[in-house]
Amino acid sequence: MKRIALLLMLAGTTVWAQEHAEPAKEGHEAAAHEGSDPTLPAKWVNFAILASGLGFLAIKFGGPALKGQQQQILDKMSQASRRAEAAKVQADEMDKRISGLQVEVDAIRKKAATELAAEAARLEKETEQLLAKVEQTAEQEIASSAKFATQQLKATAAKLALDLASQKIRSRMTAGTQGVLVDRFTQHLGDSSELRG
Length: 197
What we know:
The chain is mainly α.
């Protein structure tokens, strides 16, 4: 409401200044020939009214708008400052992590070397155990094969000896020798049956 009243007052003052400037126009033309402008004070009044109206509008509407913009700018600057500080904190944290990264890499390498050495020792031990087991199995198989071969050899030798003895006996055996052997055998059978009875 106050704004409307103020605007009406400014408009009325401008109209009043123009009305007073109209009659002076005729005199102005006459005075223009003389070198002075009789409407100059009315022009100054119009200028003052216009300047005060513009100043009032600038103060009334421009000031708060500028203050609002200024506040927004300040808020954005403070947000930017907070973001810059947060970014700096993050950058510092990343620097700490990167500097600590070399320590972590060294620790991982050391751990990996230890684990690799333990794994190599375990594999070497397992290999030795497997080789010992293979050697033991091979020795057992060799002993078993040797025993089997010995038995086969003895069996073959016994068979050959029997075959040889059989051949010798056949070559020496005559009909008379066979009769003597049969007689002895039957006599031996008779003696053993008497002993049993």
